[in-house]
Model the fold of this input.
Amino acid sequence: ISQAFGKITVSRIGKGISVMESKVQTQVITQKLLRQFAAYLRDQEKSCSTIAQYNRGLAALHRFLQGAPVTKHALIAWKEHLMRHYAAASVNAMLAAVNGFLSFCGWSDCRVKPLKIQRELFCREEQELSREEYLRLVRAAVQSGNERLSLVLQTICSTGIRVSELLFITAEAVRGGRAVVRCKGKTRYILLPERLRRALSAYLAKQKRAAGPVFITRTGKPLDRSNIWRDMKALCKRAGVKAGKVFPHNLRHLFARTFYSLEKDLSRLADILGHTNVATTRIYTVESGAAHRRQMERMGLVIT
Done:
């Protein structure tokens, strides 16, 4: 009887191994699967930037595997490889992309856990753009004769919009006093400060335009991130601001910190910035180490 049961057990184990081997062999990333996943993301109305980020993560995994099957062991090895070469946030972004792909393919048993990252208590001083530095950038743009760039800086910093949302700042929005921003499947309304409206109206009058996006290229297309990034970097030397601090998203961070310092309402700020999760908004309001140091000095708890 024991021998009979032994045969049955071995037989079942053998069948189990063959099924597992067959399953592993089918778990190979193909171009067809990648195209299907990209189409799925579009159907889910993911933004172009999100789809591009997912594609980068999957491309990195595809290069690492070099045609080998997708297994939990292989993905753990890839995760360890990423940890040696990338920052934790970048690792988690790629893992999120791959985990989404695995769920789509029905390979959820291969999903890997993201890294645990403690929220930073202070922003890096070498990357924090101060109000004074922002003002120097605006003045440098004016002095260099680049009125468009000057207004781009002021528009992003006074409204908190993303650089990709500049195209929603239209002549019609300037006249109405508010812009309708559609991003990441959400619609929100952005009020334009009166001084900004007057400056943009004067700019449009000089350009003899009464409709469409305010900020366009010579060919009439809306300005994109690369145009603005390049122009901002060109200002650094004239303004006396370190290049590491000068990029469009830092203007959005400056808006958030300034708003929060005046009105300690994180939920309202999240709505203005278009954040679904308030935890994301907290990142924007993190103070610098220098500010925290000054606060500790004012406490006066060191007496020797």
